[in-house]
């Protein structure tokens, strides 16, 4: 037997290109998520989840997510996280030009929202190792740089944590014009957040 099925890709909000799959066929509708990050109300604005004025009837949801675990019961919203990080970065970098922040980002993608908002709010570009991985995301290119002389870094090194313990950034920078840097590290990680007991 053959059956026609319509497959619709919906934005998952997880990292660039991440999607959820909506399968619609004669026997019903199924949503398969993968990892996703949607704020309250975002799904209500997805036109492709609606039929006319009402939400489509979905018979089954396959929730394939890293965070389907009680220890992740409360994950702060993206806005709450950004607000806290902005407050910390602003207070630290305002102390002097030698006070810098290292964003300890373990994955290659998924931090674009953070980089863009920090750059817009604070007026610093974010130092990254290479720009080529962001070439297809033109909205971020004016907010990142390969110039190490900035106060916000998201550069990477195979032994990041060891380098940071030596009071140097993963790019190797330890001082600016002969003055030692004062470095703090921020780890924007839901996984790390969830593994903490307090």
Q: How would you sum up this structure, described in words?
A:
The protein has 198 residues and is of the alpha/beta class. The chain has 2 domains: 5-66, no CATH class; 78-186, Rossmann fold (3-Layer(aba) Sandwich). Helices cover 22% and strands 23% of the residues. The chain contains 5 helices and 13 strands. The chain has helices spanning 78-93, 112-122, 138-141, 160-165, 190-195; strands at residues 6-11, 19-25, 28-32, 50-51, 54-55, 60-62, 99-103, 126-127, 144-145, 152-153, 175-176, 179-180, 182-186. A 5-stranded parallel β-sheet has the order 9-8-10-7-13. A 4-stranded mixed β-sheet has the order 1-2-3-6, with no helix packed on it. Strand 4 and strand 5 (54-55) form a beta hairpin. Helix 1 (78-93) crosses helix 2. It is elongated and about 75 Å long. 13% of the residues are buried. The model has no long low-confidence stretch (mean pLDDT 86).
Sheet with most strands: strand arrangement: 9-8-10-7-13
Overall average residue pLDDT: 86
- The CATH topology annotation of the largest domain reads as Rossmann fold
* Shape assignment: elongated
Number of strands: 13
Q: Helix count?
A: 5
Strand content: 15-25%
């Amino acid at each position: 037997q053959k059956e026609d099925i319509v497959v619709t890709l919906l934005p998952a909000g997880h990292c660039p290109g991440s999607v959820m799959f909506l399968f619609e066929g004669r026997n019903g509708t199924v949503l398969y998520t993968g990892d996703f990050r949607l704020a309250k109300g975002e799904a209500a604005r997805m036109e492709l989840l609606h039929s006319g004025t009402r939400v489509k009837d979905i018979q089954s949801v396959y929730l394939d997510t890293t965070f389907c675990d009680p220890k992740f019961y409360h994950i702060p919203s993206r806005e709450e996280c950004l607000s806290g990080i902005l407050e910390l970065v602003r207070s630290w970098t305002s102390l002097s030009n030698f006070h810098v922040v290292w964003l300890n980002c373990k994955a290659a993608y998924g931090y674009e929202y953070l980089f863009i908002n920090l750059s817009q709010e604070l007026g610093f570009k974010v130092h990254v190792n290479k720009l080529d991985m962001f070439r297809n995301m033109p909205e971020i290119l004016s907010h990142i740089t390969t110039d190490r002389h900035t106060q916000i870094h998201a550069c990477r090194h195979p032994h990041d944590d060891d380098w940071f313990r030596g009071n140097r950034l993963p790019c190797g920078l330890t001082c600016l014009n002969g003055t030692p840097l004062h470095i703090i590290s921020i780890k924007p990680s839901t996984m790390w957040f969830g593994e903490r007991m307090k």
